[in-house]
Amino acid sequence: MLSEGGSFMKGMVLGGLFCLVLSLLGSFSPATESRTDGNDHHHHHVKAASKDELQQLSDSRLQELNDQLQVYCVVMVQPKSLVYWATALDTWTKHCDKVEFYTSEASKALEAIDLNEKDDWARLRKALKHAYENAGDIRWFFVAQPNTFAIIENLKYLVLTKDPEQPFYLGKAVKSGELEYVELNSGIVLSYEALKRLVNVFQDEDKCPERGRQLWKLSDDKQLAVCLKFTGVFAENGEDVHGKGLFNSKTVDSLISESMKQNPSNVVEGCCSDLAVTFSGLSANQMQVMMFGVYRLRPYGHNFHDLLTFFPPKGSDND
Q1: Single GO cellular component annotation (predicted)?
Q2: Helix (H, G, I), strand (E, B), or coil: what is residue 233?
Q3: Half-sphere exposure (CA, 13 Å, Cβ side) for 211?
């Protein structure tokens, strides 16, 4: 009986330790967090302006917002993703007001900024710092991977009435333990103020180390959230006026397949927002199909009566 009791207690202790480790792995958050505004700020939902809200603005104000709104696209690439890299260059990135491809090492085939860095997090830090220092008057930044397809005009519509001098950190916000972060594979939007705070905290190795010091390695998007959290910037979910998410971590056909099972009587409505900003995990062929469907194919006689038109940058060879 004593040996059975000892075995039982030993099992309880080992089981407890195992659960503790799992809990720690799933709920990492920094021991302290700095809030610059003194207000308790939790993850919430940032919605695009409704048509009624836009109609309350004067034509001159709408035009002013349109003229001021520019997006700097930061695309993280590697030579092994050359096909996606080339496809992103040939498709949606032409609608960015400025785009830079940041690579882990130089490629003879395509032009990019060679960061000479293998570590994902260190490379992302260098890319964001470079974008901040070379943004000029651009006040919105979009970070993406090469197999993500983005509709930049819809991104601009989302942030049209938002002040880039306020800290915005937007995308598909998810939670891992106690840490809320924006998924990189769905695209990350940063306002100028958020990026400025981030670049400043890069200098603090205690709060935002270039090389992670944890017992386990955080993904680069989680590490980004940790560093931003120390500056009082928190993940926010980008949504349309109906509350549908605008940033998708799946392809269109995956989302439609899911909707066919869950909403067979209303597949399109159940799939995704009409003003979606991103879809992810696309093949090069799917990205070209998306480019055709979004920018080329149009039903004759249909007019959506949009109050604004976001034109691609001058010199772009896309619609």
Answers
A1: membrane
A2: coil
A3: 2
Residue 250 region, left (φ>0) first, then alpha (ψ -120 to 50), else beta?
A: beta
Transcribe 158-172 into DSSP letters. Answer: HHTTS-TTS--EEE-
The domains located in the chain, with CATH, are 45-296 (3.90.550.50)
* The dihedral sign for the CA sequence 11, 12, 15, 17: negative
Residue 95: exposure state from Cβ atoms within 10 A (0-12, 13-18, ≥19): buried
Taking Cα atoms as reference points, which of 161, 166, 230, 175 lies closest to residue 44? 175
Q: What is the rounded distance in angstroms from the CA atom of residue 188 to the CA atom of residue 278?
A: 10
Q: Rounded to the nearest 5 degrees, what angle is found at the Cα of 278, between the Cα atoms of 273 and 284?
A: 125
CA–CA dist 109, 47 (Å, integer): 40
Contact assessment for residue 283 and residue 39, using Cβ atoms and an 8 Å cutoff: no
Lowest mean pLDDT among 140-154, 200-214, 226-240: 200-214
DSSP structure class, residue 144: E
